[in-house]
């Protein structure tokens, strides 16, 4: 089992796709995490996104809470979500803002003034992330040798189209972990241990580390900050699609000594197949025939969930500790 998160250079994909596909495949079948370098997201776009995020979080709570989360869109305050509901006593020690797709300047949700003003920049950043995701998804279809007549290298890309109405569950999340407060919070963990709910996630960490990955299913290793790299990980959807061949690995954010003095900002970009996509094994001879028991869904859950049903189940669990009102506001589709 890998103990280090590999770095994959995705430059010149049209000519180097075989090698890139193999590198990414190896990461997905072992540790479930990898960094990509020479990707499609310009540094200035990343900087713009972080700067908008900070501008928003600097506003008073009352102003942010006007945009309180509905259907997993909008602002979630400190302790508002529990990513490890089985063990966490309190919710996550973080603030989050979840965006649904912004397409051609149109947002699907009301945006606070900072984001309304910056929405073109956010969309540009998001589309750049999407370009990297499309490379990763194509590489995975190549590595899995999906037959041409089944869709070949476009298999995953077809159900991940940024502009399609059915992919309304793409989510961009701006996160802030405010400095200090470990003594008051009394838990080592700031974001509970969890696996992601979508197909792949792109993660940007700015300046302050804190993310840990359960590399060997028992030991936690740090996911260090690597300049100009994006961290990519496999979500639960791929475990379903590959009968567990791809690993959707647990990760969490922990308090580090520097968190006492410094706010930590991160940005996660969650890709999600079109809502009606069935999470059944994909057409690949590399996928094992037998289906493992998936711990993330309750026992007795039907065998073949759609992507949207799976997402709902996972969201329900993370908001279950909230009031009935908040809970239903966040899981009803
Ligand atoms: O903030 C981070 O570094 C990780 C966040 C995360 O794992 C998530 O939101 O799913
Ligand atoms: Fe995550």
Automatic annotation (TrEMBL):
Domain Fe2OG dioxygenase residues, every copy: 167-273
Molecular function as annotated in GO: metal ion binding; oxidoreductase activity
Organism of provenance: Syncephalastrum racemosum (Filamentous fungus)
Protein name, per record: Fe2OG dioxygenase domain-containing protein
Family recorded in the similarity comment: Belongs to the iron/ascorbate-dependent oxidoreductase family.
Entry-linked PROSITE patterns: FE2OG_OXY (PS51471)
Signal sequence region: none
UniProtKB keywords: Iron, Metal-binding, Oxidoreductase
InterPro entries: DIOX_N, IPNS-like_FE2OG_OXY, IPNS-like_sf, Iron_ascorbate_oxido_reductase, Oxoglu/Fe-dep_dioxygenase_dom
């Amino acid at each position: 089992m890998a103990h280090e998160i590999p770095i994959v250079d995705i430059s010149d994909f049209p000519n180097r796709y075989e090698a890139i596909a193999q590198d990414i495949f190896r990461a997905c079948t072992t540790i479930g995490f990898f960094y990509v370098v020479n990707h499609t997201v310009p540094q200035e776009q990343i900087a713009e996104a972080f700067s908008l995020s900070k501008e928003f979080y600097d506003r008073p709570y009352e102003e942010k809470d006007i945009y309180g989360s509905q259907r997993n869109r909008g602002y979630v305050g400190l302790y508002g979500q529990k990513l490890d509901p089985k063990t966490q006593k309190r919710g996550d020690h973080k603030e989050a803002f979840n965006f649904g797709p912004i397409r051609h300047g149109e947002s699907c949700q009301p945006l606070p003034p900072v984001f309304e003003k910056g929405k073109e920049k956010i969309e540009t950043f998001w589309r750049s992330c999407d370009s990297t995701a499309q490379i990763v998804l194509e590489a995975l279809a190549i590595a899995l040798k999906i037959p041409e007549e089944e869709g070949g290298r476009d298999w995953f890309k077809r159900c991940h189209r940024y502009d399609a109405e059915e992919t309304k569950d793409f989510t961009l999340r701006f996160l802030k972990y405010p400095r200090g407060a470990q003594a008051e919070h009394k838990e080592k963990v700031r974001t509970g241990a969890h696996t992601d709910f979508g197909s792949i996630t792109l993660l940007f960490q700015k300046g302050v580390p804190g993310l840990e990955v359960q590399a060997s299913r028992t030991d936690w290793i740090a996911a260090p900050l690597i300049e100009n790299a994006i961290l990519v990980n496999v979500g639960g959807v791929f475990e379903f699609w590959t009968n567990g061949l791809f690993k959707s690995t647990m990760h969490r954010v922990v308090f580090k000594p520097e968190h006492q003095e410094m706010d930590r900002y991160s940005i996660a970009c969650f890709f999600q197949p079109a809502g009606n996509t069935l999470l059944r094994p994909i057409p690949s001879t590399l996928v094992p025939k037998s289906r493992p028991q998936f711990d993330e869904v309750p026992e007795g859950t039907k065998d073949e969930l759609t992507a949207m049903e799976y997402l709902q189940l996972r969201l329900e669990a993370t908001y279950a500790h909230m009031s009935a009102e908040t809970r239903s506001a966040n899981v009803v589709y």
